[in-house]
Amino acid sequence: ATTVKDPPRPVEAIDLAPACCEEHGVQVRKDRPCMQFVGLLSADECRAILKSIESKHDSKACSLEPGSRSQFRLRDKELSETIWERLREHLPSEIDGGEALGLREGWNHARYFPGQSVFAHMDQRQTSDEHKGDKTVASRMSLTIYLDEGYSGAEFVFVK
């Protein structure tokens, strides 16, 4: 588990939905938030996570095919609980007629090497290990966290 500390400042939530929806000619829906969070993790917390996962990543690109990357999954209940506590006030408490329970304990860690890219896609609903037997529980939102800085590219682009 990754040890995290309190963030150095409150989390700033920026609502991207109005601009994104206008760009793509669709209406903003309160039940479909699109947010950017500034200050979710401190620089020290990001460095600690990066250090803890460094040895698990590939050391170089194995392929330049779209969708290729170094990726693995780790369970980290403490990190999930910490981030949920920081985010929950900015997110709807109900989604698709159900209660927002928190974040899954499983985290996908991805690293892209120069020349690698992801393809346009929509994340599918998934259950979690901790709720595997309950068919009424499934993911409703995706969360992407950039842990490092100092790179070019790596745009997060919304497509219609």
What would the keywords be for this entry?
two-stranded antiparallel ribbon, single chain, alpha+beta, 160 residues, 3 helices
Structure overview:
The protein has about 160 residues and is α+β, with helices and mostly antiparallel strands. The model has no long low-confidence stretch (mean pLDDT about 80). The chain has helices at about 15-25, 45-55, 75-85; strands spanning about 10-15, 35-40, 70-75, 95, 100, 105-110. It is globular and about 45 Å long. The chain has one domain (about 10-130). A hairpin with a 2-residue loop joins β4 (about 95) and β5. A two-stranded antiparallel sheet has the order 1-2. About 20% of the residues lie in helices and about 15% in strands. The chain is built from three helices and six strands, in the order βαβαβαβββ. This is Prolyl 4-hydroxylase alpha subunit Fe(2+) 2OG dioxygenase domain-containing protein. It comes from Lotharella globosa.
What would you call the shape? Answer: globular
Chain oligomer state: single chain
Task: Quickly count the domains.
Answer: 1
Strand content: 15-25%
Radius of gyration: 17 Å
Fraction of helical residues: 10-25%
Q: What is the number of helices?
A: 3
Terminal residue distance: 37 Å
- Average pLDDT confidence is 82
Low-pLDDT stretches: none
Strands side by side in the biggest sheet: 1-2
Question: Pairing-aware structural class of the strands and helices?
Answer: alpha+beta
Number of strands: 6
> What profile does the largest beta sheet have?
2 strands, antiparallel
